[in-house]
Write a structure and sequence with these properties.
The structure holds two protein chains of two kinds. By secondary structure, chain A is an alpha/beta fold. Chain A contains ten helices and twelve strands. Chain A folds into two domains: 167 residues, Rossmann fold; 127 residues, Rossmann fold (3-Layer(aba) Sandwich). Chain A is globular. The two termini of chain A are 35 Å apart. Chain B is an alpha/beta fold. Helix content of chain B is 42%, strand content 14%. In chain B, strand 3, helix 6 and strand 4 form a beta-alpha-beta unit. The longest helix of chain B is centred in the last third of the chain and has 18 residues. The chains are: A alpha/beta, B alpha/beta. At the A-B interface, helix 2 and helix 4 of A face strand 2, helix 5 and helix 6 of B.
Chain lengths: 313, 281
């Protein structure tokens, strides 16, 4: 597997969409030009699948997805970047709230929003919204952070066809990187937490798009004969992280890597949940401590691997 | 007449502070409500606003189920889970009610597109108002509906008010017919509160939409005869007076659909039917 991140994700997403009937696939330039930087390439129209280039009205695009879902049709909305999704917040919070209070006697369609988070910091002050955690928190809608081939293949295949709404979030920083191909060992029932490695000496739990850094940390530890479990929490709202909590309670040593930009990141809740289970757990966390700049800047999370390891071993 | 009576009964309950949920009556909208309900056939769908009470009362098999819903009862129309502003009735085609201004336009576009993808020729009707057309979402929805040939009927209830503000107090005038013309959408204006005339004109629009699969905007001029929400009168000294003891007619001119009915039937006939209806209730 030598694919780049964006190419690999396009293959996974288009393969899934191309299997869905009674489906409306739409977005600005979804079937034109660069195909949203390659994200929406290879989509195939059929008698029961419409692929529609639509105008510039993102609020309406989001409402349309809910209407399609209520009519029993699946909707897949491609949005070039997360900033544009903000216009739909009324629908995520209010429209979906109303739908969820209703007992429908028929199966609702699915509504998936596929978008890239411009988290590399070079877009400028107006195009660098990264607060997907805040959107999820306000709306209680899940966002799946697509880190690599295995998790993306799993969650896109399982989740895109389900009734209800979710986001699939890509990292712009990783667009041209080689695709992460770590194998999945276990998953939480709702695909919110994925385990990649098993080990009893330490537990590494990654948030956001930090799985690759987590794997580097795991290898650093292995060089010292420390065998660690590696997890990625790839959903930001109410993840079922019991498998990661159990591993943490067993190992008593927890590394948390969190490259999200949210001041209310679920990594803090994870640490609290783990400490509630066992106050003797020791933990080390790498996260964004500086105030996030709105100006052009590099936004890679620099992980101090040695510092983290020395803190716990 | 039946809908007016039920709404008056509801207003009396509101005066008694029987409900905790905010209820937006539609006294004065009955001609439009009854006419719209008359063109909704099996498979057609309605997407309403916070002022959905009159529609739900008109279409419910038993209006008592709506009253129970407002009480939060598990025996209510939606088992007490939706309350007032979001109340729907899937069995009668009310698939969505939104309390957010203009929020339901795009949802209706999606719903209508869903029907199209499923190769159904049902009509989707979305209610909105003179306040909501100030939102950009209205214009966006109009463009989307036209661009994709949606069988969508957008009904604009123009009652002049956005809560306590009249149009002239909050914005410049909007020529809705010109907006519709600019995007090549059929436009129809209804005024006068003649329910039979409204029903015939709407049925004719529906027939055209079934043939052409195009959206249409119908602007209906109404006078809301109750306060924005809650009971009328809403406070001591409120100049707006509504009392069931005064009979079904609230206002003695054509702004009241019941006055229009009385004019048509003749006063004696009207009062005869009025008495019968009240006795039956």
């Amino acid at each position: 597997m030598t694919e780049k991140y964006l190419e690999g994700l396009n293959k996974i997403i288009s393969d899934q969409v191309n299997q869905m009937d009674d489906t409306f696939v739409y977005g600005g330039n979804v079937n034109r030009g660069s195909f949203i930087s390659g994200l929406s390439k290879n989509l195939v129209e059929s008698r029961r699948r419409v692929i529609q280039n639509v105008g510039n009205c993102e609020y309406t695009h989001c409402g349309i997805g809910f209407g399609l879902m209520m009519s029993g049709v699946n909707a897949v909305l491609f949005v070039k970047q997360l900033d544009f999704v903000m216009l739909g917040i009324d629908h995520f919070v209010s429209t979906y709230g109303s739908i969820r209070a209703t007992d429908y006697p028929y199966k609702l369609g699915s509504f998936s929003i596929v978008t890239a988070m411009y988290d590399q910091g070079y877009q400028g002050p107006q195009s660098s919204f990264r607060g997907i955690g805040e959107i999820c928190s306000m709306s209680t809608i899940s966002a799946f952070m697509l880190n690599g081939y295995s998790d993306a293949a799993l969650v896109v295949k399982d989740e895109m066809k389900k009734s209800g709404v979710r986001f699939f979030i890509l990292s712009q920083r990783k667009a041209n990187e080689k695709m992460n191909t770590l194998d999945v060992k276990r998953t939480a029932p709702d695909n919110s937490v994925i385990q990649y490695s098993e080990g009893s000496n330490a537990t590494i739990v990654c948030f956001g798009f930090s799985l690759s850094s987590g794997e580097v940390l795991r290898r650093h530890l292995l060089d010292r004969d420390i065998v660690a479990s590696l997890f990625s929490v790839n959903v930001l709202e109410h993840p079922q992280w019991e498998i990661a909590i159990s591993a943490t309670v067993r190992s008593k040593r927890l590394f948390v890597l969190d490259d999200t930009f949210s001041p209310t990141s679920s990594s803090f809740r994870f640490i609290v949940d783990a400490l509630e289970q066992d106050p003797n757990i020791r933990f080390a966390i790498e996260r964004r401590r500086e105030k996030v700049s709105t100006a052009v800047s590099n936004e890679d999370l620099e992980v101090g691997f040695e510092r983290l390891i020395q803190k716990l071993f | 007449m039946r809908l007016r009576l039920i709404q008056l009964e509801l207003n009396e309950k509101l005066k008694d502070r029987k409900y905790k949920v905010p209820i937006h009556l539609g006294l004065g909208t009955e001609a439009a409500v009854v006419a719209i309900a008359s063109i909704i056939s099996n498979g057609d769908n309605l997407l309403l606003t916070h002022r959905n009470s009159a529609f739900n009362l008109e279409l419910a098999e038993d209006p008592a189920s709506v009253f129970l819903e407002y009480e939060g009862s598990e025996f209510g129309l939606a088992n007490g889970r939706l309350g007032s502003m979001n109340l729907i009735n899937l069995r009668k085609g009310i698939v969505y009610s939104s309390s957010i201004l203009a929020n339901n336009i795009s949802v209706a576009c999606g719903f209508s597109y869903g029907q199209k993808i499923k190769k159904l020729e049902n009509l989707t009707v979305v209610l909105t108002g003179d306040g909501a057309i100030e939102e950009g979402a209205f214009y966006e929805g109009l463009i989307f509906a036209k661009s994709h040939n949606l069988r969508l009927l957008i009904v604009v209830d123009n009652n002049d008010y956005s809560m306590a503000s009249r149009i002239s107090e909050r914005r410049c005038s909007i020529d809705l017919s010109a907006i519709c013309e600019s995007v090549d959408v059929e436009y129809l204006f209804l005024a006068g509160n003649d329910v039979d005339s409204y029903a015939k004109q709407l049925a004719s629009v529906k027939t055209r939409q079934q043939a052409s699969a195009d959206p249409c905007v119908v602007e209906v001029s109404t006078s809301l005869l109750n306060q924005h929400a809650g009971p009328t009168p809403g406070w001591p000294g409120d100049s707006m007076r509504v009392d069931i003891k005064n009979g079904l007619i609230i206002k003695g001119d054509s702004s009241d659909p019941l006055f229009v009915i009385a004019e048509r039937l003749g006063q004696d006939n009207f009062h005869h039917f009025e008495k019968q209806l009240i006795l039956k209730r």
